[in-house]
Amino acid sequence: MPATDLRRVRRWLWAAVALVAVAASVALWRPAPKNQVAEDYASAFGGPFSLTDTQGRTVTDATLRGKPFAIFFGFTHCPDVCPTTLQMMVRLRQNLGADGDRLNIVFVSVDPERDTPAEIGHYLTMFDTPIIGLTGNPAQLKAIVDAYHVFYEKVPIEGGDYVVDHTASVFLMDADGRFFSTLDHKEGEAPKLAKLKRLLREG
């Protein structure tokens, strides 16, 4: 067989192999079931933890179940993001009217060096609304920040003091402790309120 014809046959053979491979991959691929996608989304954030509240009592992920909650990570010496976010959450809960009582707000301090349970309790009185304040030792905090994929880092500043850089999102969890959505500081209050209403309706 001439070399030209041989090359042509080889090209046809390789084309046939490629078509078979594509057909096999299409036949084998199946989209993930919708319920599996929903399950993966709901388990993307959250998980087991054990912390201490402002009264010195142990609070776990199981303790919070039974009621949807919004959880935020910060520290009491935070100059802007933390108080602004907590004030926003208080305002949103008030805007929910009577349904606001069905939502817990949870504040987790990522500054265990300074934020004792008593210090957190004093700090939260500024917001004049029930907020669950939590803290723990470094190992306990690592467990919850890993579960929620939260970043925090101690940053020295002038004068020997420090601040804590941290994730600023609010995580919305349903009554079973499953992830529902987040509130981002860049969102307007109307879409945030709509998310909370949907959480209370569905979660």
Question: Secondary-structure map with pairings?
Answer:
Blueprint: H1 3-28, H2 34-42, E1 50-53, E2 58-60, H3 61-64, E3 69-74, H4 81-95, E4 104-109, H5 117-124, E5 132-135, H6 138-147, E6 152-156, E7 162-166, E8 170-173, E9 179-183, H7 189-202
Family: Belongs to the SCO1/2 family.
Keywords: Copper, Membrane, Transmembrane, Transmembrane helix
Protein name: SCO family protein
- As a percent range, the share of strand residues is 15-25%
Class of secondary structure makeup: alpha+beta
- Rg, Å, rounded: 25 Å
Specify the helix fraction band: 40-55%
Write a concise keyword list for the protein shown above.
single chain, 203 residues, alpha+beta, Glutaredoxin, seven-stranded mixed beta sheet, 7 helices, SCO1/SenC, SCO family protein, transmembrane, Thioredoxin_domain, copper
Describe it.
The chain crosses the membrane at residues 12-29. It comes from Sphingoaurantiacus capsulatus. InterPro entries: SCO1/SenC, Thioredoxin-like_sf, Thioredoxin_domain. Residues 1-29 have low confidence and may be disordered. Helices cover 42% and strands 21% of the residues. It is globular, with a radius of gyration of 25 Å. The chain has two domains: 3-30; 40-202, 3-Layer(aba) Sandwich (Glutaredoxin). It contains seven helices and nine strands; from the N terminus they run ααββαβαβαβαββββα. It is α+β, with helices and mostly antiparallel strands. The strands form two sheets. Strands 2-1-5-4-3-8-9 form a seven-stranded mixed β-sheet.
